[in-house]
Design brief:
Layout (H helix, E strand, L loop, with lengths): L1 H71 L21 H6 L6 H19 L1
InterPro entries: Tyrosine-tRNA_ligase_regulator
Protein name: AIMP1
Organism: Cervus elaphus hippelaphus
Length: 125
């Protein structure tokens, strides 16, 4: 019986070690997956940057072709002012929004008042 207890104890110990090894390997697999995803993302980003550069070059070439064609057709070319940089994005700053005057027609004011009355009537019911 003493030998079977020793064997059983050794098997349990080996089982615990195997569980630890399995857990360690699972962690390593998860890390490798994350690393593979990161590398794939970086490769894709690099590929897109190269493609973006090619497209920018192509756009610049097409712009030059357009300018040449316009000059041949007699269209006067007006250069952009060098002191003011162009806005390339479509976002508008808060200062620009605040400086835009807003005018509301009297018809729109009446419509808003009518909607306010309807809302008050609904809340009273």
């Amino acid at each position: 019986m003493a030998t079977s207890d020793a064997v059983l104890k050794r098997l349990e110990q080996k089982g615990a070690e195997a569980d630890q090894i399995i857990e360690y390997l699972k962690q390593q697999v998860a890390l490798l997956k994350e690393k593979a995803i990161l590398q794939a993302t970086l490769r894709e980003e690099k590929k897109l940057r190269v493609e973006n550069a090619k497209l920018k070059k192509e756009i610049e070439g097409l712009k030059q072709e357009l300018i040449k064609a316009e000059i041949q057709n007699g269209v006067k070319q007006i250069p952009f002012p060098s002191g003011t940089p162009l806005k390339t994005d479509s976002t508008v700053s808060e200062n620009e929004i605040q400086s835009i005057p807003i005018t509301v027609s009297s018809g729109a004011k009446e419509q808003v008042k009518g909607e306010e009355k309807k809302m008050k009537e609904k809340t009273e019911k």
